[in-house]
Amino acid sequence: MSPAPAQFDKESGSARPRIEGDREQEILSATLQVLSEVGYDRLTMDAVAQAAKASKATLYRRWQSKATLVIDALLAQKGVEHFEPADTGTLRGDLLAMFCGFGGITEQKPIALLAGVLTAIHRDEELGSQFRERFIGPKIAASRVIYDRARDRGELREQVDLDLLAPALAGIVLHRVYLMGEEPTPELVSAVVDQIILPAALHQPHEQES
User: Is domain 6-65 given the CATH code 1.10.10.60 in the classification?
Assistant: First the structure.
């Protein structure tokens, strides 16, 4: 079998072998395995290379840093890059479908892997930047699509701040999971939607006393 065609690296100005298909998935799966075992801080390219039965040089030809490798692995595992928000016809239905469906916040494995990254995003500038742009960004954008559709249907109250509201559901659930030790169940998501998100989105807030 002939070798895979070279892929041009714009930053280095050189060609590099393309890692794709099953081999790429094997390396990304090995990355998630190591991440789940030791967390981001202790994850090394050597450890991933050993788990994937590849050379460290092979990894560096495709991924310039462990931050890029880990984010690629998380995206491949969750399917974030190809995520399309559900359209059930109601804001409540869309939120439950998004957060309780495949790749949602109620799945145990993604939550456990996320815990291995969250402790490092404030210390590792590259990881934090890529995490916010490539991992969290698409999720927030999908949430905005859901809320924009709800606004077009006339469900939302006037002047609701979507920049504040769109990330709120995930933030509240993850707070209760990571800090309060609760399980990320569909029942928890439903309670947050019904008791916090929908009242904020669909009803006028109480006027502050003068």
Answer: yes
Q: Taken in order 23, 29, 31, 37, is the CA torsion positive or negative?
A: negative
Cβ contacts of residue 139 below 8 Å, gap of 6+?
80, 83, 170
- The pLDDT tens digits for 116-148 are 898 899 999 999 999 999 998 888 888 999 999
User: Could you give the angle at the alpha carbon of 81 between the alpha carbons of 58 and 151, nearest 5°?
Assistant: 165
pTM score, whole prediction: 0.78
Judge whether 197 and 168 are in contact, CB under 8 Å.
yes
Picking from 68, 74, 62, 49, the residue whose alpha carbon sits closest to that of residue 21 is: 62
Q: Which fold has domain 79-202?
A: Tetracycline Repressor; domain 2 (1.10.357)
List strand residue ranges (DSSP E) for the chain, in order. Answer: 6-9, 14-17
